[in-house]
Structure formats: structure tokens, C-alpha cells
Amino acid sequence: MQHIEAIRQQILDAARLQRPLRIRGGGSKDWYGGALAGDILDTRQLTGIIDYEPTELVITARSGTPLAEIEAALAEKNQMLAFEPPHFGQGATLGGVIGAGLAGPRRAASGGVRDFVLGAVLMDGRGEVLSFGGQVMKNVAGYDVTRLLTGAMGSLGVTLQHSVKVLPRPVCEVTVRCAMSEIETIAKLNQWGGQPLPLSASCWHEGSLTLRLSGAGAAVDAALRVFGGDLLDAPAADAFWAALREQQHDFFTRPGHLWRLSVPSVTGALILDGEQLIEWGGAQRWLKVAGPVDAARASAIRATVKAAGGHATLFRKADGEGLDVAVFEPLAPAIARIHDRLKQAFDPATIFNPGRLF
Amino acid sequence: MSASIAPDPVRRQQVAAALRAALPERVVLSDPEDTRPYECDGLAAYRQLPMVVCLPESEQQILAILTICRELQVPIVPRGAGTGLSGGALPIHDGVVISTARLNRIVRMEPHSRTAVVQPGVRNLAISEAAAIHGLYYAPDPSSQIACTIGGNVAENSGGVHCLKYGLTVHNVLRVRVATIEGEIIELGSEALDAPGLDLLAVFIGSEGMLGIVTEVTVKLVPKPAAARVIMASFGDVVTGGNAVASVIAAGIIPAGLEMMDRTSVRMVEPFVKAGYDIDAAAILLCEADGTVHEVEEEIARMTQVLESAGASAIAVSQSDAERMRFWSGRKNAFPAAGRISPDYYCMDGTIPRKRLAEVLTGIELMETEYGLRCANVFHAGDGNLHPLIMFDANQPGEFERAEAFGAAILALCVEVGGAITGEHGVGKEKIDSMCVQFTRAELDAFFAVKRAFDVPFLLNPDKAIPTLNRCAEFGKMKVSGGVLPFAGLPRF
Prior knowledge:
The complex is a heterodimer. By secondary structure, chain A is of the alpha+beta class. Chain A has helices at about 1-15, 65-75, 95-100, 105-110, 145-150, 180-195, 215-225, 235-245, 250-255, 295-305, 335-345; strands at about 20-25, 40, 50-55, 60, 80, 115-125, 130-135, 160-165, 165-170, 170-180, 200-205, 210-215, 230, 255-260, 275-280, 285-290, 310-315. In chain A, strand 6 and strand 7 form a beta hairpin. Chain B contains 18 helices and 19 strands. Chain B has helices at about 10-20, 30-35, 60-70, 125-130, 150-155, 165, 170, 200-205, 240-250, 265-275, 295-310, 320-330, 335-340, 355-370, 400-415, 435-440, 440-455, 470-480, and strands spanning about 30, 50-55, 75-80, 95-100, 105-110, 115-120, 135, 175-180, 185-190, 215-220, 220-225, 225-235, 255-260, 285-290, 315, 345, 350, 375-380, 385-390. In chain B, strands 12, 13, 14, 15, 16, 17, 18 and 19 form an eight-stranded antiparallel β-sheet that branches. In chain B, strands 5-6-10-8-9 form a five-stranded antiparallel β-sheet. In chain B, a hairpin with a 5-residue loop joins strand 8 (about 175-180) and strand 9 (about 185-190). The relative contact order of chain B is 0.11.
């Protein structure tokens, strides 16, 4: 309680003094999004699992609870966060996971972060505590502010706690790998997407396609016959998907700027200067760009991706490089106006993470 | 029953003339004989003759209507098929109803990307019918799917029997094209898996026609499962039945469908559908598995074992698709069956944590005595969404009011046990007072702020869903402790 009071006081002071606040849990996503500004509003004292009901498929925890603690509690009951969130560092917290809205390899098959968030308790720019959603999946009372807060990068306030839907771990999970060109990969991934195959993750890089199959034993066995390829042993498979999720895979650790391209899965091979890695059945493509990136080069990337029906994010800048390029795709004017009004509503003094998302 | 207010003929003439100046004759209706069919939706007890009804044929016409209404400050009520159960499409006496009936084209079927682009007036089932040839279908299956529109589904974030496994509308829609009150077109979401900025698509879905008019929807299609089988399990008491549901989930199984019916609803439907339900069981559970033939075999075996261990008194497994449909027929015909044994019924929609089911059903049983009305319960056991069916006779003085009071008491109980006042039917007109129970004033003000972010002049379905301070104050005066409303004679707003 006292932690919440301390946070409220910090918010009221910041609003009065017109000083921005930087909402921060473990700081594992400090590098992501727009420039950081303001005094730190530390959420780590808001910690603890409040309620976990495996048979209700829901876990409720305070925002500063370490993701590792949540995952451990779920693993004990053979359940998981189906959106497989990356930690991107020690000390990642639940609030940060939901605020950043980043999902891992399983996203295309299971859904994104916002598909699993059931409830949120928010402290807004007036220090008011607002509770949205709840612990139940089917809840259409009022607007879906819970989902609005997911991926909002703290721009609308500090979340104090969340309720998240969890799912059972798959009974059976195997990984296979084969050689395949980019063009054939895109075609095949989309073809398989239209078939009832238990495909939970995919990764193409440098002519090699790795697939994870998850589900009932019978389904996985049948699917193995469809895919062929070489089976990875369990430790190698786990290591591979973990490295992909945490961006420790070679592709990510090589020098260069990392762009995230979110495109329709059927998008053909994108002609862009740089190395690519394809995930999410073709819907998430990573682009590694060596050398300087100026506004013109960024525009070219964005134009190509936009023409394909997607958007591009400057996900992670190469170390030590300052760039005068917008991190996120600029918003259409009418959409930007709605964003401004929502910001005004929840954060009238514009103290929360200004510029981090918009 | 709410009293219908007669539209002011002078205002009607002014608005109709402005609309007719900009639109083809066939698009604008103002004669009461023509507008009467739009006076209510699926919540037929609430009726209001609309002042004007528009049936636009294109996005351009929708924009023209919105612009004129904004300039003349005319409130707007969007309407799909009018199957909604919360009065979301109830007209406003000095407003315009915009019907999407003529926007019923499937624009594009894209089997390779497993998507379809459709106009808002396309029926939910029509999407699946068109996708069937590609081995795909649109998963959210509300019971009204034969008639309800995708635009309406977006407005209500509709679910259905299969939403435990396949998700709600919000999990199955990629992009929505919206006409705003400012006369602009905005796109929310994307054909990619996400869009830049805040998740406005998620806020829009379930916003009950209050944030914009849908002009086009891109839906996700999923592969049709090769096989499906259903288990029908009987239980001697609701606690055992409720625990069996928990056991299925605890075993790590997410069935394609998991539905429960209580004894009252079973006895109500069985003579009607002859599905073979045990009329002496306290609860019946319908548990479906879908997937490949082998997956289904495996899952049915696991579920059977769990249900047996959980104390099912009888278990039957469908041996053919015809038998599967027969097992489901009782659940799917619960509402018409209620209509057979009772002149009127009031279908409620609340969500509760599954573990509180026995408690809530017991509470409802006590209310049956208190309000002197029968109530049958069907339950989306998989996700805790309860549909009590309160049976009454509107011709008997006071019974409608008692039915409404009974309903409000059930919703208060849902909130008390940690649930929500509406799982899928929406708040609309019907549950607007219950919003005062579920939310604080600050939360309701936050909702108004969300609305104003999209609709500054406050013209889109302005009298639905979110209650004002005055309304809650009035409602609060009638509340007594324990969340149970006083018996009878409640004036309705």
C-alpha cells in the first residue's frame, strides 16, 4: 500500500512541477523505443503474485514482479505465457512485458501479448487508481482499456498489476530443420498456415528453415511426416528458440542497426539492403543494416515495407550510434489526433514517458 | 417497458431533407411505416421509433451521412442485423439509424494469407460458408451467427461456443476501416500482425457503435478441423459438474467447446429436441474436441478419463457427425425452447470465475423464490460466461419489472464474486445501470474520455453503455446492501 502511496506522491509532484517521469521496472527494455527522459519512477517495489489459479487459466501479479518468477510459478503447474515474451535482460518485470508488448517465437501461432491480457490496474496522471477488465476472458463491459495499455510503453500511466491468461504447456514439442530458399520458405509457411498443422514457431535465416511443432503427440508425429528435415535434440532445440527469442542468435549479435518489419505473412521477399531473418510464418522480418542510417535511408526502408502493407520499427540501434531517425512508424494524422486525446485523458500533464512511444 | 417518444415532425423533416439532398432517395427512410421495423433489436422489450433510417450502399454515403449529422448535431445509432441482446441498436427519438444491411459484399477472399475482407453487413456464417471451399472458416460462432453481421460482432466483441479455444472477435480480426464522426476514414490494425502506436483496434472492438462506423473488416480465417466429436456427461449435482470443468482445464486440455446446462434448462429443451439428455441430472456438460482424427481420438480419451474421475454419472461420446449435432442441439436451442414453455424470457449474460459457479447457481435458485420466476441456466463453462434465462409473462402485471430486477440482481452477484456484468452481449441500453455497480466514477469518466478521443461531439450511440454521474446517482438511491435490488416497481430510465 505504502509503495502505491509513494508512487502517487511522485506522480502528483511531477504533474505539479511539470517534470517528466520515466516508468521503469528492471530496465531490460531501456534501449527500446524513443529517447528516455525524466526522473525514474521505479516499479520494482510493486512485486508479488497476488493470485494464480491454474484451473481458471489466469495469473494476477503486481507490475514489478520479475518475469522469471512468474514463469517459474507457471512452469511448476505445467502452464505458460503463450506469447513467449523475451526478457532482454535480467530483472524484466510483468509490467514491462505488457507495456512493451513484445512477443516471442510462438506469437503467430498463439497470439500476441494483448490477446492474453485480461485486466489491468492503472494509476493515471492524477494519481487516480483505475481498474479495467478483470480476471475473466469474456468481459465486454466498457471499452477495452486493458488492451489499450498493452504495448503503450507507459504512455498512459503506471500499471500496478495485471491479470493474464495462461495456457497449458504443449504435451509434445519437437524442432526440425531443413535447407530452403527465402522464396520457397515464404510460400511454404503460408501454405502450411492454411492447414491444421501444429506449427508453433518458425525461423528462416541464410537458407535454413527451423520449425517447432507443438501439440498432441499424434498431431506432432503426423506433422513430422509432412515437414521432413532433421530433428534437433531437445537441448539444442530449446537453446535455439531461447537464443532467437532473446536475440542472442548470431544474426542479432552481429554489428549493425536492427529493424523490425511487421508485414502480412504472404509478403514476397523484401528487396532491402541488409541481412534478413524471418519469423512468425513470414509476418515478422528482421533487417540488419550495416553502416550509417540517415533519414533518407530510413524512409526508403519504410516505403518498401509500407508498400507491402506493413510498418517498420528501428528496433535496436548499433552501439554508440546516434541517429536522427524516428524509431516507430509515423502515425497517420487522424490516428495521431486520437493518440493525443487519449494522452490528454490519462496523462493531462504529459509526464509519463513522453516520446517513448509517441 | 420503456416508453417510445414520438419524433418531432419538424426536426425529422429538416434532417430528412438534408440527407435526401445528398443521397439517393432509396437510402433515406422517414415515414413511420418504413422506419417502424428498426424500432428495436433483439431486446424487444425496449422500443423507440427512429426519426430517420439510412441504408447506405457505400463508404462515401456513410461519410456523407456522418457529415450531415455532425453539422446538424443529430445523434446516430449504427445497426447491423438487429440481433443484439442488450439494446445496443435501440434508436434515439431524435436520431438517425444507420443500417449496414446494404453493405453485404464479401470484397475479397484470400485463402493464401488466410484472410477475408468483408463489408460490415456480411453475416457471420456467410463468411465461413464462402471460406469453406478453401478448407477455412471464421471461428467466432455466436448463436445468432446465421443472421448477425460481422460489423455487429466487432461492435460487441462477440464470442460463441468455440471461443475458449479459438478466441473472441478481437482475436480474429486484423483490421477495421472506420468512418469517424469527423467525416474521415481511419484504418485500425493492419494486415500485418500489429500496427504502430497504441492498440486502437482492440479499443474499437467491443465499443458498441460508440466510436465510429465500420465500413470494412479484415478477418482472420482458420483451417477447418478434419474431425470433431463431443462428449455428453451427466452430473448428480452442480458442484461436481463445476469441479469437473476445473479438472478438464487442470489436465491441460483446452476443449474446442465446453458447455454446461442445469436441470431446469435440460428439462426445458429435451422434449423439444430429443437429444437424449438425462432429465434427472443436476447438470450436463458438453465437451468437444476438434482437430485431426488422431488428435480427436487422443483428446476424447483424455477428457473421458478426466470426467469419469471427476464423478460423472454417465458419459456418452458422439459416434457420428449427426450424433454430434444432436448432442449440441439442446444447447443451441435453449433460447427457442424457453420460448416454448414461457410467453417471454429474458436472457442474461454475465461472466464469473469458474470456481464460483456452484455458488452463483445456488444464489440464482434463491432468487427464483424471491422474485417468483423460473430461471434456466446455460453456461459457457470453458470461460465462465453464464446465460441465465429468466422466464416470465409480460401480460402479467409486474412480471417484466420483476424479471428485470431479478436480472440486475444476478449481475450484481456476478460482480460480487469477481466477474463481469457482460461476457459477450454488451452493455447497450440494458445494463447501463449495472455499469454503476461494476465501475467507479473515475473509471466511468475514463471511459467517457476514451469516447471523446474518437467522438468529440458525442453523437455516436451516445446513450449507450457508459452511464453519466446523474444516472448512477439515481440508480444508487435504489440499491440496498448486498447488491440485491428491491423487489418490483422499479422505475426504469
